[in-house]
Amino acid sequence: MAGFTLLPSRLLACPSRSLPRLLHHHANLILRCKMSSSCSSSSLAQSITLTSQPNEPVLVSAAPGISSSDFRDAIDSSLFRNWLRNLESESGILADGTMTLKQVLIQGVDMFGKRIGFLKFKADIFDNETSQKVPGIVFARGPAVAVLILLESDGESYAVLTEQVRVPTGKIVLELPAGMLDDDKGDFVGTAVREVEEEIGIKLKKEDMVDLTAFLDPSTGHRIFPSPGGCDEEMSVFLYRGKVEQETIRHLQGKETGLREHGEFIKVRLIPYRELWRKTADAKVLVSIGLYEMAQREGLLPRH
Length: 304
Fold this sequence. Notes:
Elements: E1 4-6, E2 30-33, E3 45-49, E4 58-62, H1 68-76, H2 78-87, E5 99-112, E6 115-127, E7 133-134, E8 137-140, E9 144-153, E10 156-166, E11 171-175, E12 178-180, H3 188-199, E13 202-204, E14 210-211, E15 235-243, H4 246-252, E16 256-257, E17 266-272, H5 273-276, H6 283-297
Parallel strand pairs: 4-5, 9-15
Antiparallel strand pairs: 1-13, 2-3, 3-4, 5-6, 6-7, 6-8, 9-10, 9-12, 10-11, 10-17, 14-15, 16-17
């Protein structure tokens, strides 16, 4: 077998996932703190000024139940800073001056150790012409990756998927190996390789990975938004192709993997690629098929 290394099952229990790190502060953001350590959650507030609306300060406040430390962490988190940066980017909501951000209410903070993993808040953004507020409930979780792994054996191409418990859906879902970026370096391909190692038990080489989202128009930022109506998650989708013996296919099928101490209970499932599009409702799978097929049709993929 060439191109990747199968890892013993016992190695999968070893945690290699570091906690999320905060990204650098947005240089154009000016913070004006109006908060004291003695404040209650109902009175926690902070005023910020954005370069896109210098005469319209934005009030950021905490909902009841949010502690002062969680509030400070939320304001300083990479999740919140990146959201503000996107607002003022070239294609951002505030870029052309037709809309204004009035206030933000921090409603929920989920910590990964000492750092924020998930952040929920409500943003009041108004259209300046009509004074109408646009929907603004945000579940922030940051950038992520997914990997379409295609293994060819005896003339058949197999997609390697994970079967996982997904509590939000109430179901067990068949999906692509995927995960969140764990640091502030933006190492999408490194994260993709690590997620495959943790969830599938095979070690891929970075140089063998093809970024399918890199073929998208630059206006997209070379990322996809799986659920932009409520979540900030932006995802890179990678492709790996390899040739293996049937013994490897049999070894991977049904293999139990994942980091148990992180609550990951995963089974590996291999599906013939020709059947993949109808075997799962996972949007990552369906998007990856579209990207792969179009890139192949346009001759954009490197020679296999």
